[in-house]
């Protein structure tokens, strides 16, 4: 039997997607179309065939009450992505800063029905599209260990519901799509899996959230008090985030953590601080944003501008060393109109330890 999980897909785009939005399920022909794209429901007869053909057995975990939001539920391991991390209950902005989150409107992994675990697209689930049919997802909770196998994937609208299958325990993994987007996207990338094996037991949860590194932008408190630096208060459309980094285990660990979101957010604050201090001719405050030893030119095309309109998306390139530590960020917007004239704006940030500062800020005619 298949039902639709109440509500739409989780809104987990970075920065602009700072809230989780569950929208009404699309009904009628469009809903039927999405249902057709999803993996077919597994009947009791098919389930028996699966057990016999694969020589593994699965059982259904008993229903249980959900813990409070933010509490660690267990661990999720995806060997094909080299990912193993704790996951928490809830999909709020604060929950997803900690770890992947379980949507409380779905059953727990291993229980009868479809469980949903979501994460930010540019963090833990950045490489979700590398999963292939047959790959395993191993989830451990206080009810036991559950092995799920990937049976399909798809890109669906954020106003679509997910099929809720009561014939067999399932797990859907979800992230905003495209997976390198820094904006609140209208689409979701979903990986569909089915339970193929489990080991039920009641045991304490041993998984723990690994805290993200706390980066800080080199911004004087008076600047943050004077100008609306948070992205939600600005009109800069966000684009994508890419990496320049060697292929090491430490780099992969950084990408699949909350660190990329943390350091990128600090760089965006510096971008807005440079814009406002330039526009309102606060040259001393502007100079304070720069890396010690750098002597910036104190005027640019933003200086005293009465109109600054960002028409193209702001793209970010993050550079890492082999140890998985960020070294610099390049932020670029290729179409910014200043008093009606088109410019390209480029900012380079330096990362020293946990501090992010500006090394160059250029506003050049397009």
Describe this protein with a few key phrases.
single chain, 366 residues, alpha+beta, Sortase, Chain: A, Nuclear Transport Factor 2, Chain: A, 2 domains, eight-stranded mixed beta barrel, seven-stranded mixed β-sheet, 7 helices, 18% helix, elongated
Question: Which secondary structure elements does this structure contain, and how are they paired or packed?
Answer:
Elements: E1 2-4, H1 28-37, H2 44-54, E2 72-78, E3 83-89, H3 93-98, E4 101-102, E5 114-118, E6 136-141, E7 144-157, E8 163-165, E9 170-177, E10 187-200, E11 216-217, H4 221-226, E12 238-244, H5 249-255, H6 259-279, H7 283-288, E13 308-310, E14 314-320, E15 326-338, E16 341-352, E17 355-365
Parallel strand pairs: 3-4, 5-9, 11-17, 12-14
Antiparallel strand pairs: 1-8, 2-3, 2-6, 4-5, 6-7, 7-10, 9-10, 13-15, 14-15, 15-16, 16-17
In short:
With 366 residues, this protein is an alpha+beta fold. The chain has 2 domains: 2-200, Sortase, Chain: A; 216-365, Roll (Nuclear Transport Factor 2, Chain: A), CATH 3.10.450. 18% of the residues lie in helices and 34% in strands.
């Amino acid at each position: 039997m298949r039902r639709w999980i109440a509500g739409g897909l989780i809104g987990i785009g970075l920065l602009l997607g700072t809230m989780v939005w569950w929208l009404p399920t699309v009904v009628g022909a469009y809903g039927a179309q999405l249902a057709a794209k999803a993996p077919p429901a597994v009947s009791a007869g098919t389930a028996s065939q699966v057990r016999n053909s694969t020589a593994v057995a699965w059982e259904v975990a008993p229903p249980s009450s959900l813990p409070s939001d933010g509490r660690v539920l267990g661990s999720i391991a995806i060997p094909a992505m080299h990912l193993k991390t704790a996951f928490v209950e809830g999909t709020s902005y604060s929950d997803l800063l900690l770890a992947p989150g379980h949507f409380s409107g779905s059953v727990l992994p291993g229980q009868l029905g479809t469980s949903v675990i979501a994460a930010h697209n540019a963090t833990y689930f950045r490489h979700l599209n590398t999963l292939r049919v047959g790959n395993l997802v191993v989830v451990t909770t206080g009810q036991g260990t559950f092995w799920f196998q990937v049976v399909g994937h798809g890109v669906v609208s954020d106003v679509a519901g997910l099929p809720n299958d009561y014939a067999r325990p399932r797990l859907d993994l979800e992230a905003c799509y495209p997976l390198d987007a820094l904006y609140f996207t209208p689409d979701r990338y979903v990986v569909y899996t089915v339970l193929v094996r489990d080991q039920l037991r009641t045991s304490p949860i041993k998984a723990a959230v690994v805290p993200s590194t706390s980066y800080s932008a080199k911004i004087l408190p008076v600047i943050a008090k004077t100008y609306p630096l948070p992205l939600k208060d600005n009109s800069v459309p966000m684009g994508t985030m890419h990496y320049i980094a060697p292929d090491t285990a430490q780099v992969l660990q950084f990408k699949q953590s909350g660190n990329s979101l943390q350091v990128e957010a600090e760089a965006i604050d510096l971008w807005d601080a440079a814009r406002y201090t330039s526009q309102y001719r606060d040259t001393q405050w502007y100079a304070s944003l720069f890396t010690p030893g750098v002597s910036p030119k104190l005027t640019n095309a933003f200086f005293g501008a009465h109109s600054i309109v960002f028409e193209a998306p702001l793209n970010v390139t993050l550079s890492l060393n082999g140890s998985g530590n960020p070294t610099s960020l390049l932020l670029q917007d290729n179409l910014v109109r200043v008093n009606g004239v088109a410019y390209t704006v480029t900012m380079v940030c330096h990362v020293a330890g946990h501090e992010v500062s500006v090394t160059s800020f250029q506003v050049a005619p397009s």
